[in-house]
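In this section we walk through a basic example: taking a raw amino acid sequence and producing a predicted 3D structure, encoded as discrete structure tokens. The instruction is simple. Fold the sequence below.
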Amino acid sequence: MIIVYGGKHCSACDTVKDSLKAAGIPFEYVDVLSTTKLSKRHTKNFFGRNFKNIPQIFRDDEHIGSASVISHLIMVEQGEKNGTKEL
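The resulting token sequence is shown next.
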């Protein structure tokens, strides 16, 4: 499962979300700037590290990067969906 940690009024966050939606890749979006209490999982993933920016992207609770990895992530996810493996 892909998790995108971001916040309101973040154009890079919107770009990542739009790219994942367009590619048909399911993901969970967590607004870390909201006042809503986050689950322990999300608190550990995002606040347990020293991130300086958003968005931050996780795959199966493993940090894979920020907005710069989205093209590669989509390629990998679509390859796995189609039964091919990453080189």
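Looking at the output, two observations stand out. The longest strand covers residues 2-6. The beta strands are 2-6, 27-31, 56-59, 62-65. In the next section we compare this with other chains.
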